[in-house]
Amino acid sequence: MTQPTDAAARFAALLAPEGADALAAAGALWADSPPDPLAAAAAMRAAGIPADLASTALTQAGLRHRAGAKFGPDAARLFFTRAGLEQATRAAVATRRAERLAAAGVRHVADLGCGIGADTIAFARAGLRVRAVDADPLTAAVAAANVAALGLSDQVTVTCADATAVPLDTVDGVFCDPARRRAGGGRVFDPRAYSPPWDFVTGLAERVPATVLKLGPGIDHALIPAHAEAEWVSVAGEVVEAALWCGPLAQAPRKATLLSTRDRAVNQLVGSGDALAPVGPVGRFVHDPDGAVVRAHLVAEFAATIGARLADPTIAYCYTDGAAPSPYASGFEVLETLPFSLKRLRAAVRAHGLGILEIRKRGSALEPERLRRDLRLSGGGAGTLLLTRVAGAPTAIIARAVPVA
Fold this sequence. Notes:
Protein name: Class I SAM-dependent methyltransferase
Keywords: Methyltransferase, Transferase
Shape: globular
Oligomer: single chain
Radius of gyration: 25 Å
Distance between the termini: 59 Å
CATH class of the largest domain: Alpha Beta
InterPro entries: Methyltransf_25 (IPR041698), SAM-dependent_MTases_sf (IPR029063), Thump-like (IPR041497)
GO molecular function: methyltransferase activity
CATH superfamily of the largest domain: Vaccinia Virus protein VP39
Strand content: 15-25%
């Protein structure tokens, strides 16, 4: 029989009545902002909470505090590990995925590599039955505790098992999030080093056609299976994942989905991923597409929505002669365009009175922070510097931001 690790034993202690009391005390200390560690330890000790349990509860309270950005109000009831929180799907992304599976007619889904249960919870809340599996005993225990904490145990079974050994004959949908980190914490970029293995992951759709694979945003397009929909998702401008929708779930070859945390808007762009945008001169306005648009190879499709062109066929900056605000890009009004030269750029920035400068780059090897120092900024104005190429030549564009649609 496998003996529990120290981490597993500490987590189990949190589930006991004494652990719940310790969590409540630790949560109160984290109510508004991170507490002073020494003062927090002293407060827990004064409340009669054993040192080991106090330390575990304070760590968990800190993770819950951080988790609010991903999980909203649920974070206060859920349990986390550091790695599990970092790798967990944001609640908004998981909810949309679950709703799409439910709308496609899936009723019983296997969540292979369920982590701490973020997607499992979303599936259950969408009305699906879930068979959740994780190979790590502690992670599986955390997922089971989270399912129970939200009252979803009737719809979910959580098992610690090797995903490759899980029978799939009773499910009509599969979601797989292969581990993309080494045991020491480093990221794995080669899909052949994923766990479960890449061949197993890509073969799931042959066993259960309604399969969704969650992958890192940097996935090579050459590895995307034929006839699968590859979707890149960004939240508030940060690309958080790529997902492959297989079989009957596929809707388009490539898709960029942008979720806004400001107004909860959802914008989607679809296309082949192979189209080419027209090329022409720099215009009065420049548009920097969201990372999901760029990752999905949908720059041409985005450019078509605003009548834009590229100034270099290999660079994603898009140009228009008139204002064209778009939810798919950050827009800037061009103040000056010049061939890159530190001396000339320093003089131009000074002439525009810029002392606060956002530096963006596409197609430039320059290091923004070093360039910022070299520019010796001293003005009182604010602007944006875009480092890029125009017709292959290193170019600097001084601009100012314009409102997003």
